[in-house]
Design goal:
The complex is a heterodimer of chains A (266) and B (470). By secondary structure, chain A is of the alpha/beta class. Chain A contains 13 helices and eight strands. Chain A has two domains: 116 residues, no CATH class; 127 residues, 3-Layer(aba) Sandwich (Rossmann fold). The radius of gyration of chain A is 18 Å and the shape is globular. Among the domains of chain B are: 254 residues, NagB/RpiA/CoA transferase-like (Rossmann fold); 60 residues, no CATH class. In chain B, β11 and β12 form a beta hairpin. Chain B is globular. The N and C termini of chain B lie far apart (63 Å). Classes of the chains: A alpha/beta (266), B alpha/beta (470). The structure holds iron/sulfur cluster (SF4).
Chain lengths: 266, 470
Amino acid sequence: MSQPPESPKVSLFVTCVVDQFYPEIGESTVRVLRRLGVDVDFPSAQTCCGQPAFNSGFWSEAIPLARGFLKTFAGDRYIVAPSGSCASMVRVFYEELLHDEPDLLEKARAVAPRVFEFSEFVVDVLGVTDLSSFVGQTGDTSDRNVTYHEGCHLRRELGVTTQPTALIEGLPGVQLTEMEQVDVCCGFGGTFAVKFSDISTAMLQDKIEYVQATGADTVVSCDATCLMQIGGGLELNGVDVRPVHLAQLIDERIGIESGISRAQPR
Amino acid sequence: MRPDTKNFKRGAAKALGNERIQANLLGLYNGFDRARLAAADGTPDWELMREQARAIKAHTIDNLDYYLELAASNVEKAGGTVFFAKDADAAAGYVTDLALARGVKLVIKGKSMVSEEMSLNERLTDAGIEPVETDLGEYIIQLAGETPYHIIAPAIHKSREEVTDLFEAKLNSPRYEEITELAAEARRQLRDKFIRADMGITGANFIVAETGTVALVTNEGNGRMCTSMPRIHVAITGMEKIIPSMDDLGIFLRLLIRSATGQRISSYVTTVTGPRHADDEDGPDEFHLVIVDNGRSRLLADPELRESLYCIRCGACLNACPVYRKVGGHAYGWVYPGPIGAIVTPVMTNLADAKDLPFASSLCGACREACPVKINIPRMLLHLRKEVTEGRKYPTERNRSVLEALAMRLWRLSLSSPAALSIANSVARVLQKPLLRKGRIRWLPPPLSGWTPSRTFPAFVRPFRQRWRG
Ligand code: SF4
């Protein structure tokens, strides 16, 4: 990307999972972006990008949702999602899904370059990696030992590998310890997690083991769905490691407003 | 090999319940997969080579008819015979008939996955001919009466103790403690076979069209014995193994060997062009090349799946795959397991039976990242999934579950507008009440019941859209 404009304009693509289960991740995303000088709006017609249907082979159910997305997010604002997976659905997979829908495909191609995952947007578009100057009086200053779980679509579809850890390392008081097999899937995979529950669980058990082995008190990810998987496993196994989204971790450190719910995703 | 693709879940459960297999599979990550990464790291222009190899493959597969003819005519010019086999049965028939016609009693075999497609050992045995596998892993598998677990490490699921037991039971050998002793025993057993065999059968890692040359990559030297000692050499290969010229071979050898084992070069690279020539010191009197289709034309004809024919069978996607590393090779139910198997098996056998395979993936993309020819496996899995639920291409009828289709429709309708979503949210928040324990869901009904045995599930809450105030 070239030079960012004075006050970048962003439409938040909150994603259905964050909307319904983890609204606090959406709130943190908005607060952090605003603190970084971004003009954020929320196109209220948005629902879901269609990924669950697309991944399950029900392309005919996914296409109407894609159509809705493309209509909602027409225009020229950046589109930022607190999810590598949902961002890659729009940026990468609409190309497949809409292959035989020339009109929609054209729209998808126009939208794709404006779509960013949260950490990618902050680092690559805003050009911010060192967040220490944004950390405020009301922020959490306690020492934290965190480990980062790399989301698969974030890494391999969007090619976002260094941005999240750069942001984490730029946070005062936060110590980052890399886990073993950091780039290996947590086993979520959408309906895979229930259709092949045994396999998904075995992958999750490994992930939990590697998270624990770091001694971290917090596991950070850029995808709510990874946190749903890892957090759900941590809770059932009684492991005292807090799953948080990167936007939440930053939000807590920056501490812009007090008294706002910061319920953790599990 | 008769496909048994319907029982993926059962096979997976079996492997998941076996601690030793789990440990061996984990070893693939720490062993082969890390070795591959280190080898790639140490190779200048690795990414460029991948791109180039992919371009060569794309060109060759797009012009496969031309290159197959060129290869065949050059093999014939070098004094060899070429047989194009429409399917596995025709290929096995050709080899068996040839062996019978030449009075062959004993066949030594190098590693060949295509011969597994053909159930060649069974066919030869039925005809009264003894086939002996000479690759150590394959030898173990043959003794055990099993099928390969991995395309380059067929006996990866077996422990040293199991091989000791097997050798004791089948060969009457002492109880060896060391792997080197076991290998030495196999070598002793095989030496006599090498000397007595009338026919050597190998696969082919590559066929060079321009020269009619077969290239073989091995670490044990058995491939070279099979191609040079018996009086007849038969190379069997899938039709996608063609590359245009000797110039291309270098890049493919570099990519294949590094991706397979992390070695910079295998112990042996053998190239064979026709039978023994007048000025050769050794070599077979006869050379036959069997080029097998067996469903590959269907992959070729499908623009979405064609790139699966770029595969050089290095096994890197298996080692990189977190699902393969849990379920192992036998669960996939046919010759090719893992990510590439999940693409080619349903098309080469039958998608209706193998419909679990494309779904048994979290779409993490580790396979594509590992693949030396950058085959986009997740993209093809998505297309096959669509074929299962909506398609008409491979199965004659759709294979979607009615319940799932209904659930998908309801789910989509609930997302058709913000108003619908608000209603769905309110309904869900009422329905979930009896399931909530401390704000978390600990039990879910089918079809989501698979979630809760190992994970809690978050509750629906007042959604972001209602909290947003601009
Ligand atoms: S698909 Fe790629 S990684 Fe997998 S075996 Fe084939 S060449 Fe190797």
